[in-house]
Amino acid sequence: MEHILDVYEMPYDPKHPKVCFDESSKQLIKQTRLPARPGQVRRVDYEYRRMGTRNLFMFFAPLTAWRHVEVTDQRTMHDFAHQMRWLVDVAFPDAEWIDVIMDNLNTHKPASLYETFPPAEANRILRRLVFHYTPKHGSWLNMAEIEFSVFVRKLGTHIPDEASLKRKVAAIEDARN
Questions:
Q1: pLDDT for 70-121, tens place per residue?
Q2: How far apart are CA 32 and CA 21, in angstroms?
Q3: pTM recorded for the entire structure
Q4: Which of 84, 74, 142, 125 is nearest to 108 (CA)?
Q5: CA 20 to 30 Å from 13, out of 34, 61, 122, 160?
Q6: Which 3 state secondary structure label does DSSP give 100?
Protein backbone atom coordinates (compact mmCIF):
# COMPACT_ATOMS: atom_id res chain seq x y z
CA MET A 1 0.00 0.00 0.00
CA GLU A 2 2.80 2.41 0.89
CA HIS A 3 4.32 2.02 -2.57
CA ILE A 4 1.15 3.30 -4.27
CA LEU A 5 0.91 6.21 -1.83
CA ASP A 6 4.56 7.06 -2.56
CA VAL A 7 3.80 7.15 -6.30
CA TYR A 8 0.86 9.52 -5.67
CA GLU A 9 3.10 11.79 -3.55
CA MET A 10 5.60 12.36 -6.36
CA PRO A 11 5.28 15.89 -7.79
CA TYR A 12 3.81 16.44 -11.22
CA ASP A 13 6.25 15.93 -14.08
CA PRO A 14 4.95 16.07 -17.68
CA LYS A 15 7.78 13.76 -18.78
CA HIS A 16 6.66 11.13 -16.22
CA PRO A 17 2.86 11.38 -15.82
CA LYS A 18 0.92 9.28 -13.34
CA VAL A 19 -2.17 7.65 -14.80
CA CYS A 20 -4.67 5.42 -13.01
CA PHE A 21 -6.29 2.72 -15.12
CA ASP A 22 -9.38 0.61 -14.49
CA GLU A 23 -12.28 -0.97 -16.31
CA SER A 24 -15.92 -1.65 -15.67
CA SER A 25 -18.81 -3.14 -17.56
CA LYS A 26 -22.06 -1.42 -18.42
CA GLN A 27 -25.28 -3.28 -19.17
CA LEU A 28 -27.29 -1.88 -22.06
CA ILE A 29 -30.99 -1.75 -21.23
CA LYS A 30 -33.88 -0.79 -23.48
CA GLN A 31 -37.30 0.12 -22.12
CA THR A 32 -40.05 -2.09 -23.57
CA ARG A 33 -43.35 -0.72 -22.27
CA LEU A 34 -43.15 3.03 -21.76
CA PRO A 35 -42.42 4.90 -24.97
CA ALA A 36 -41.44 8.52 -24.50
CA ARG A 37 -43.87 11.15 -25.82
CA PRO A 38 -43.21 14.87 -26.28
CA GLY A 39 -44.37 16.93 -23.32
CA GLN A 40 -44.74 13.91 -21.04
CA VAL A 41 -42.82 13.31 -17.82
CA ARG A 42 -40.17 10.61 -18.23
CA ARG A 43 -41.38 7.24 -16.92
CA VAL A 44 -39.38 4.11 -16.11
CA ASP A 45 -40.84 0.63 -15.75
CA TYR A 46 -39.33 -2.48 -14.23
CA GLU A 47 -39.75 -4.28 -17.54
CA TYR A 48 -36.88 -3.95 -19.98
CA ARG A 49 -34.93 -5.79 -22.63
CA ARG A 50 -31.26 -6.53 -22.06
CA MET A 51 -29.22 -5.39 -25.06
CA GLY A 52 -25.84 -6.82 -24.01
CA THR A 53 -22.94 -5.24 -22.20
CA ARG A 54 -20.01 -3.04 -23.08
CA ASN A 55 -16.69 -2.57 -21.36
CA LEU A 56 -15.47 0.83 -20.20
CA PHE A 57 -11.72 1.42 -19.93
CA MET A 58 -10.83 4.48 -17.88
CA PHE A 59 -7.61 6.46 -17.75
CA PHE A 60 -7.41 9.09 -15.02
CA ALA A 61 -4.44 11.39 -14.36
CA PRO A 62 -5.25 12.81 -10.92
CA LEU A 63 -2.60 15.56 -10.92
CA THR A 64 -3.92 17.08 -14.15
CA ALA A 65 -7.62 16.18 -13.64
CA TRP A 66 -7.62 14.54 -17.09
CA ARG A 67 -9.64 11.46 -17.81
CA HIS A 68 -10.51 9.38 -20.85
CA VAL A 69 -13.03 6.55 -21.16
CA GLU A 70 -13.02 4.13 -24.08
CA VAL A 71 -16.05 1.93 -24.80
CA THR A 72 -15.23 -1.54 -26.16
CA ASP A 73 -17.13 -4.75 -26.85
CA GLN A 74 -15.13 -6.78 -24.35
CA ARG A 75 -12.26 -6.82 -21.85
CA THR A 76 -9.53 -9.11 -23.13
CA MET A 77 -5.75 -9.04 -23.00
CA HIS A 78 -5.77 -7.70 -26.57
CA ASP A 79 -8.11 -4.87 -25.59
CA PHE A 80 -5.83 -4.03 -22.66
CA ALA A 81 -2.77 -4.04 -24.94
CA HIS A 82 -4.43 -1.68 -27.41
CA GLN A 83 -5.37 0.67 -24.56
CA MET A 84 -1.75 0.74 -23.37
CA ARG A 85 -0.53 1.52 -26.90
CA TRP A 86 -3.08 4.37 -27.12
CA LEU A 87 -1.85 5.72 -23.78
CA VAL A 88 1.78 5.76 -24.97
CA ASP A 89 1.28 6.89 -28.58
CA VAL A 90 -1.73 9.22 -28.41
CA ALA A 91 -2.37 10.43 -24.86
CA PHE A 92 1.25 10.99 -23.79
CA PRO A 93 3.48 10.80 -26.88
CA ASP A 94 6.16 13.09 -25.36
CA ALA A 95 6.47 11.32 -22.01
CA GLU A 96 9.67 9.45 -21.26
CA TRP A 97 7.65 6.97 -19.24
CA ILE A 98 4.18 6.73 -17.73
CA ASP A 99 3.51 5.45 -14.20
CA VAL A 100 0.35 3.35 -14.53
CA ILE A 101 -1.53 2.52 -11.34
CA MET A 102 -3.92 -0.41 -11.71
CA ASP A 103 -5.20 -3.55 -10.05
CA ASN A 104 -3.82 -7.06 -10.51
CA LEU A 105 -6.37 -8.25 -13.05
CA ASN A 106 -5.26 -11.23 -15.14
CA THR A 107 -5.08 -9.14 -18.34
CA HIS A 108 -2.99 -6.34 -16.76
CA LYS A 109 0.33 -7.96 -17.56
CA PRO A 110 3.21 -7.23 -19.93
CA ALA A 111 2.47 -10.61 -21.53
CA SER A 112 -0.76 -9.14 -22.91
CA LEU A 113 1.28 -6.83 -25.12
CA TYR A 114 3.45 -9.70 -26.37
CA GLU A 115 0.33 -11.76 -27.09
CA THR A 116 -1.11 -8.89 -29.13
CA PHE A 117 1.82 -7.23 -30.92
CA PRO A 118 5.08 -8.37 -32.50
CA PRO A 119 7.91 -8.48 -29.90
CA ALA A 120 9.56 -5.26 -31.08
CA GLU A 121 6.27 -3.31 -30.83
CA ALA A 122 5.40 -4.82 -27.43
CA ASN A 123 8.86 -3.94 -26.14
CA ARG A 124 8.62 -0.38 -27.51
CA ILE A 125 5.36 0.16 -25.61
CA LEU A 126 6.55 -1.50 -22.40
CA ARG A 127 9.72 0.60 -22.28
CA ARG A 128 7.45 3.63 -21.79
CA LEU A 129 5.25 2.09 -19.07
CA VAL A 130 5.94 1.45 -15.39
CA PHE A 131 3.18 -0.66 -13.85
CA HIS A 132 2.28 -0.12 -10.20
CA TYR A 133 -0.22 -2.71 -8.94
CA THR A 134 -2.58 -2.01 -6.06
CA PRO A 135 -2.43 -4.69 -3.36
CA LYS A 136 -5.03 -7.44 -3.16
CA HIS A 137 -8.16 -6.01 -1.50
CA GLY A 138 -6.65 -2.54 -1.96
CA SER A 139 -8.02 -1.59 -5.34
CA TRP A 140 -9.64 1.41 -3.62
CA LEU A 141 -6.16 2.96 -3.81
CA ASN A 142 -6.70 3.31 -7.56
CA MET A 143 -8.20 6.76 -8.11
CA ALA A 144 -9.76 5.57 -11.37
CA GLU A 145 -12.22 3.58 -9.23
CA ILE A 146 -13.33 6.79 -7.54
CA GLU A 147 -13.71 8.47 -10.92
CA PHE A 148 -15.74 5.48 -12.16
CA SER A 149 -18.21 5.93 -9.31
CA VAL A 150 -18.88 9.48 -10.58
CA PHE A 151 -19.25 8.24 -14.17
CA VAL A 152 -21.65 5.44 -13.23
CA ARG A 153 -23.94 7.83 -11.35
CA LYS A 154 -23.95 10.30 -14.24
CA LEU A 155 -24.52 7.58 -16.86
CA GLY A 156 -27.72 6.41 -15.24
CA THR A 157 -29.24 2.97 -15.59
CA HIS A 158 -31.14 2.80 -18.87
CA ILE A 159 -28.87 3.17 -21.88
CA PRO A 160 -30.32 1.26 -24.84
CA ASP A 161 -27.35 0.92 -27.21
CA GLU A 162 -23.64 1.43 -27.76
CA ALA A 163 -24.06 4.69 -29.68
CA SER A 164 -26.05 6.24 -26.81
CA LEU A 165 -23.47 4.98 -24.31
CA LYS A 166 -20.60 6.51 -26.30
CA ARG A 167 -22.43 9.85 -26.56
CA LYS A 168 -23.11 9.95 -22.81
CA VAL A 169 -19.54 8.91 -21.96
CA ALA A 170 -18.12 11.61 -24.24
CA ALA A 171 -20.39 14.27 -22.73
CA ILE A 172 -19.43 13.32 -19.16
CA GLU A 173 -15.75 13.14 -20.09
CA ASP A 174 -15.89 16.60 -21.71
CA ALA A 175 -17.69 18.11 -18.74
CA ARG A 176 -15.27 16.59 -16.20
CA ASN A 177 -12.16 17.48 -18.16
A1: 999 888 999 999 999 999 999 999 999 999 999 888 888 999 999 999 999 9
A2: 35
A3: 0.81
A4: 84
A5: 122
A6: strand
